[in-house]
Amino acid sequence: MTGCQFTDLSLDESILRALAEEGYHSPTPIQQEAIPHVLTGKDIVATAQTGTGKTAAFSLPILQMLKDRGKSKHIRALIVTPTRELALQIQENITTYGRHLSLSSAVVLGGVSSFSQIKALRKHPDILIATPGRLLDLFGQGHIRLDHIEMFVLDEADRMLDMGFVQDVRTIVSKLPAKRQTLFFSATM
């Protein structure tokens, strides 16, 4: 896909407009490779160095697919990441890329009061970005349902496992529907 542009990747005009407003016209290699596969509903395991655009490689097709499927009263995409900083960065990117869509997202992470996070969950976001501990905490309290997840992303999978989240990840996966699209993104394998 030499010379590929975002316009070549079957993305909605609203997403393309947001990308153009940010000055993005050409996808990175990980985006060129991943986006078409994600859009066809395939599970993927992808590796690319930090700073190569992995977040857009999964968030752009998620936004596209959720837009195509219409509105729901359930969380349909779950993105789990190991740190608060990454969760906030992903949330910012999804908000930026989806600014012209009628999709919503929320972030739940530890180290801060859960009050505003619970309030955001009551608005039925389409996409949830979470750190494992807070996700399981709010799930255990009944604030999060995972039975309608259509797309599950494990971002920075290598770091997640290095940081000791193996059991948390197993627990999260056990709560998800068997029929779902699974995307693992990592800097190393």
Keywords:
189 residues; single chain
Helix content estimate: 40-55%
Strand proportion: 5-15%
The end-to-end distance, rounded to whole angstroms, is: 24 Å
Mean pLDDT across all residues, rounded? 93
Gyration radius, rounded:
16 Å
Structural class: alpha/beta
Number of helices: 8
Q: Strand order across the biggest sheet?
A: 1-6-5-2-4-3
Question: How many strands in all?
Answer: 6
Low-confidence stretches: none
Along the chain, the helix and strand elements come as HHEHEHEHEHEHHE
Overall form: globular
> How many strands, which pairing sense, and closed or not: the largest β-sheet?
6 strands, parallel
Report on this structure:
With 189 residues, this protein is of the alpha/beta class. It is globular. β3 (105-108), α5 and β4 form a beta-alpha-beta unit. The model has no long low-confidence stretch (mean pLDDT 93). It is built from 8 helices and 6 strands. A 6-stranded parallel β-sheet has the order 1-6-5-2-4-3.
